[in-house]
């Protein structure tokens, strides 16, 4: 049959169309993987390794476990492969598999950190020119809404119980009590205490230099007795190998976060409410800052905490900004000791038992 077909096409035209259609699968537009190979877009596995050495240590610790999960699921895929719906599915998968603890909130934290870990990767990819900002799929996935923190200020009785059990148990009560007093007096974060160096002590002005979250640096007033304890601790335990870390174990090795973990685990075994509420060092920060705010006002509490941003205080914070002298005045009242930066003002001191550090370093083994 050589005449026209019912649709008006001849056999020759049909054969030509079939020939064209046969070649289309090999000439179609490349998919995401092909584009990635052609443009040099790396796989998740390769790019995670690249980004992990480019971020700050704190970000690396936060995102590392989530990057491992992403690597397990998508390690061989190019960055430009996943869609927002695939990312959402991965987030829900990680949320469902999150470890359930006494303070868990249905995997919200795991889901939030997964999205943040992916956004971190894609932010670097955009900056490196690997993908366009408009093509970042992680930005089109919403983070779970963060619930208010359960942390709050401890009562005087609760704080006294923590100090009492810290100084009467464990294999290094001097170190544990020194840690607690440092955090109570300064409201510093754990990273600030761990990063202290001998050069961070200002003996004349009775201050310590804290390097904390986001690389912020500030001089924080401490009581004269606290400063003497820190100096004595350093001199008795310093490592002759040249390490100048301020806080250290009996061996001279620098203090690590593991000591904090063991401390609160031990306190949790002796104080059930500590275990039930998952009390940690950060609760001491809440306690001190609440006391400062109640007695000296919001502006001084912000300065005491080392907060410098205006996102939570509005424009008014520009006009009521407190300085180091205000912080020293609050610290003097808290500790009941005069401070060299201010006149001798000792109103509203805390009970001595909360700030007590036992003399000597006699070892007390846990029962």
From TrEMBL:
It comes from the Bacteria. GO terms for biological process: DNA integration; DNA recombination. InterPro entries: DNA_brk_join_enz, Integrase-like_cat_sf, Integrase_catalytic, Integrase_recombinase_N, Tyrosine_recombinase_XerCD. Pfam families: Phage_integrase (PF00589). Keywords: DNA recombination, DNA-binding. CDD domains: DNA_BRE_C. Residues 149-332 form the Tyr recombinase domain. The keyword DNA-binding applies. GO terms for molecular function: DNA binding. Belongs to the 'phage' integrase family. This is Site-specific integrase. It comes from Micromonospora aurantiaca (nom. illeg.).
């Amino acid at each position: 049959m050589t005449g026209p077909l019912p649709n008006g096409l001849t056999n020759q035209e049909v054969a030509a169309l079939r020939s064209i259609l046969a070649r289309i699968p090999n000439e179609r537009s490349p998919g995401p993987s092909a584009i990635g190979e052609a443009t040099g877009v790396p796989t998740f596995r390769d790019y995670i390794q690249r980004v992990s050495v480019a971020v700050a240590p704190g970000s690396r610790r936060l995102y590392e476990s989530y990057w491992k999960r992403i690597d397990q699921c998508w390690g061989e895929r190019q960055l430009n492969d996943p869609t927002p719906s695939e990312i959402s599915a991965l987030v829900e998968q990680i949320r469902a598999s999150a470890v359930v603890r006494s303070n868990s909130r249905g995997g919200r934290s795991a889901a939030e950190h997964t999205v943040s870990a992916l956004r971190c990767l894609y932010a670097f990819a955009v900056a490196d020119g690997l993908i366009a900002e408009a093509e970042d799929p992680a930005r089109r996935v919403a983070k779970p809404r963060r619930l208010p923190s359960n942390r709050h200020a401890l009562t005087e009785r609760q704080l006294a119980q923590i100090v009492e059990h810290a100084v009467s148990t464990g294999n290094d009560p001097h170190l544990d009590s020194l840690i607690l007093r440092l955090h109570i007096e300064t409201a510093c974060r754990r990273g600030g205490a761990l990063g202290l160096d001998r050069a961070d002590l200002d003996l004349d002005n009775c201050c310590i230099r804290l390097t904390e979250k986001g690389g912020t640096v500030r001089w924080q007033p401490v009581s004269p007795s606290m400063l003497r304890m820190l100096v004595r601790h350093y001199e008795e335990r310093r490592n002759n190998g040249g390490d100048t870390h301020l806080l250290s174990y009996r061996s001279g090795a620098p203090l690590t976060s593991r000591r904090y973990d063991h401390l609160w685990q031990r306190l949790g075994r002796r104080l059930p409410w500590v275990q039930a509420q998952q009390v940690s060092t950060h609760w001491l920060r809440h306690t001190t800052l609440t006391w400062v705010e109640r007695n000296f006002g919001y502006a001084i509490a912000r300065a005491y905490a080392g907060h410098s941003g205006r996102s939570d205080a509005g424009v008014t914070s520009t006009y009521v900004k407190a300085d180091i002298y205000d912080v020293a005045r609050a610290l003097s009242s808290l500790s009941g000791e005069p401070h060299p930066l201010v006149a001798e003002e000792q109103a509203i001191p805390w009970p001595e038992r909360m700030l007590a550090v036992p003399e000597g370093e006699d070892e007390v083994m846990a029962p």
